[in-house]
Design goal:
Layout (H helix, E strand, L loop, with lengths): L1 H58 L18 E6 L9 H12 L5 E6 L1 H10 L3 E5 L7 H16 L5 E11 L2 E10 L4 H13 L18 H75 L1
Length: 296
């Protein structure tokens, strides 16, 4: 009977865990659909804006001295933004992004900005220098993205850091989130960033269709760059956060589904073991009764 009690206790625990993970899976699934739609809806606009900005940057090579965000200088201190999550239970999402940072940046002199509490915890474990910490809500409000963008811009212009690079999970599909490292400042590698992300998303070598329309610049290229670069930087930060949130909710949904499936499978095994133990106990009692009757 002791074995039956132990099995029954474990069975109740596993079934309770399955209920919790199933509820978390449903919540994450609802958030996942909204996050995926938000990321996908802004993707074409973000890519076109990046392509347009890159074309204007190359047209305005002589205007670099007038546009601080285009100022190319020696990178003595890299500014790396680690986009992680506020909560756990999302598989290896944060660890994969951290692995990318360690492989490409840990040997360099750099300062770090974290988005998400889990990112702060991981970098503190490695004792890496933190320049700032941010937390972004699930809906990714634009004012929070703008606050992060303004903080990074000010740090770059004040020479606290000499580059702004984002390490984040790019949302490819529900089952795949690809960690990428993208440099936004200085704005001299936009075309390469655009090409790499597009190839990851399409997966078949398809090239982003080029916009061959002629540009008509009014009132002047310098005025346009002055207004566009600030807006582009904020919009690019916002889109990166949308991609990261879509990756987070997708990874959490898959992780909770896996946990639920494992709990259900374990519950079936425990139920079978419990039934066998109960049948054995009943058989033993019947034998005892039979033997007792025969002896009488």
């Amino acid at each position: 009977m002791g074995g039956m009690r132990d099995i029954g206790r474990r069975l109740r625990t596993v079934k309770g865990t399955a209920k919790i993970t199933r509820a978390m899976q449903l919540v994450a699934g609802s958030k996942m659909r909204k996050a995926q739609q938000a990321a996908a809806a802004g993707r074409r606009h973000a890519f076109r804006l990046e392509e347009l900005t890159d074309r204007l940057v190359w047209l305005g090579l002589d205007s670099r001295r007038k546009a601080p965000l285009l100022d190319r200088r020696e990178v003595r201190c890299r500014g790396i933004v680690f986009v992680a999550t506020d909560r756990g239970l999302c598989g290896s999402l944060n660890q994969n992004t951290l692995r990318l940072i360690r492989e490409s940046a840990i040997a360099a002199d750099g300062k770090y900005v974290t988005v998400g509490k889990k990112g702060t915890q991981l970098l503190n474990t490695l004792r890496l220098p933190l320049l700032g910490e941010f937390s972004i809500n699930d809906g990714v409000p634009y004012n929070q993205a703008r606050a992060l963008a303004n903080f990074l811009r000010d740090a770059y212009l004040s020479h606290q850091i000499d580059s702004v690079e984002f390490a984040y999970p790019l949302f490819v599909n529900t089952l795949r989130q690809e960690p990428v490292l993208v440099r936004l400042l200085p704005m001299d590698g936009l075309a390469e960033n655009l090409r790499r992300r597009w190839e990851l998303l399409t997966g078949d070598g398809e090239r982003l269709p080029e916009d061959s329309r002629e540009l008509c610049l009014e009132p002047s290229l310098e005025r346009i760059l002055e207004a566009l670069l600030e807006s582009f930087f904020q919009r690019e930060v916002y889109h990166i956060l949308l991609e990261a949130k879509a990756s987070e909710q997708s990874s959490r949904t898959v992780a909770m589904k896996g946990a639920t499936d494992n709990a259900d499978a374990l519950a079936k095994e425990l139920t079978l073991a419990f039934n066998k133990a109960r049948q054995a106990a009943i058989t033993e009692e019947i034998l005892e009764i039979t033997v007792s009757g025969a002896m009488e």
